[in-house]
Amino acid sequence: MAQLLPPGRTYYSVTHTPGQITTTSYTRGIWNTNLAELLTFFTSSNQSTDSQEYYYEVWGSASLSCTDDNMFSVTYGHVSGSGSMNEGGNLDDTSTRAIYSQYKLTCLDGDEAGIILKGETTPVEDFYAININREKYGDKLDPGNFEINIAALSGSGKVNAEHTGSKVEISGSNPIVITLIDDSGDQSDLIEESRYFSISRNLVSGSLQDGIYNPSNPHYYGKVYPSQGVIIISAHSLDQSASFNTVTGSNINGDNSYKLFTAISGAASVKSVGFTARAIDIKNEEYYYVRVPIGDANYTSNPTFINQEEGLNKGKIKNVKFVDNPKTFVSAIGLYDDAYNLLAVAKMSKPLKKTSKDELSITIKLEY
Q1: pLDDT tens per residue, range 242-255
Q2: Whether residues 252 and 296 fall in one domain
């Protein structure tokens, strides 16, 4: 039981029924200043070339000031390690294989063979991934309230091995743009109330405005894992729909991750359609009830109340009127465990007056 401990005074019991926890979910824009749509995309020259073999950090501003945050990262993984160089000459020890294994461990339960698209029976061999900054998506990505726009690239007629990320551009001044959402069907900004781990959704062709395209037979592009802030997109689907021509040769630096950055930023620059997303923040609330009886907590050891100076009057009440008619003001309450360890401090919006004629009843809300 938590207890109220005024220093040097009587201990007071705090009433609380275990298990009475209220969970409230809040939704907000995911990007800087809580905006829902991001229309500017930049990579950083400060990111090391070694880490760029694995992923690219994407920023919302080119200034890279102290107040800027990276918004998300883009990466590419292949089950056999294709599309990247062998590290140290070791066969199959590549960055794309490491990425594939990382997301398999992060997103799946451990007993699944790999990431399988709806309607398929075998895992995808390679995929692109968007990993949203943990500080941005809060407790989880808000299902049904995000949209990604991806512009088609210009490499469908090029040799695969030469279609590396640094050589790719969007397909002309008026490229095809595919728009992807999840299939949760939540288009009315409803908040997912669950306080528990969020299930995965399917990534499909559609828009927030119009919903799923061809809902009776959707085109499945990948998977969405809201609790991890991860969006997986099948490389094969992007090759077919957006001419990514993903480099899958052995021991070759395909720089495929940069293609996804080019496609997302290209859609924003040419079509003015960006990356729209919202986050869910979950707050747990508990209530504690404090009762201070009439005869208690009417005196204090505060220096304004008790004389602290050396001499005959040390320790005596300064104002003689407070001897029979004391007045104190409660400004904070400490919550302690049974071992008298301070766990939390509740601050009053304004100090509460306490006299020998008044009983105080205080409700404390603990939010975490």
Answers
A1: 999 999 988 888 89
A2: no
